[in-house]
Amino acid sequence: MKDPANVLEFAGPNSRIGKLWKFDHADSIRENRELIIHYIHEAMEIEKSGIKILSTGTKPKLPEELLAYFKNDSLFKKAFESLTPGRQRGYLIYFNQAKQSGTRMRRIQSSVVKIMEGKGFNEF
Predict the structure, then answer these.
(1) Model confidence over 25-67: pLDDT tens digits?
(2) Cα–Cα distance for residue pair 82/116, rounded to 1 Å
(3) How many whole angstroms separate alpha carbon 43 and alpha carbon 50?
(4) Residue 20, strand partner residues
(5) Of the candidates 99, 90, 14, 56, which has an alpha carbon nearest to the alpha carbon of residue 80?
(6) What is the number of helices (H) and of strands (E) in the chain?
(7) Which residues of 77-98 are buried (b: 16+ CB within 10 A; e: fewer)?
(8) Residue 83 has pLDDT above 90, yes or no
(9) Which residues does 62 contact at the CB level (< 8 Å), separation at least 6?
């Protein structure tokens, strides 16, 4: 989607594709009414056209602790690889945020059950 007014921003630091427009107060919505309508119409046209967003292909690196866990547990490796790319990405971001190896390992171990169930990082 084009953003001539440069108002769209990524939802968070790990967002790659989806953007949003944040409004601080109701007045800003009224002030930008025409532009908002333009953006909505463009989004609707994109949706109707069936255009697919191309993935950037970037994937967080697999931490050494996870690779070691894969070597010791092939069922766990298979379960992780069968997760959707988004679920894999969520776990990898979570694992890689830890600065210490021990913390990364604890995070991996605490995620084993959910991964084996095919659930994502934020799923219950």
Answers:
(1) 999 999 999 999 999 999 899 888 988 776 666 678 899 999 9
(2) 10
(3) 11
(4) 9
(5) 90
(6) 6, 2
(7) bebbeebeeebbbbbbebbeeb
(8) yes
(9) 92
- Predicted TM-score of the model (pTM): 0.61
Share of the chain above pLDDT 70, in %: 93
Q: Any idea which residue has 């944040």 for tokens?
A: 22
Degrees, nearest 5: CA angle 108-113-67: 35
**Residue 53 region by backbone torsions, left for phi larger than 0, else alpha for psi between -120 and 50, else beta:** beta
Q: What share of the chain is helix, strand, coil (3-state, %, to 5)?
A: 55, 5, 40
β-sheet bridge partners, residue 9 = 20
**What tokens appear for 80 in the block?**
């992780």
pLDDT of residue 116: 96
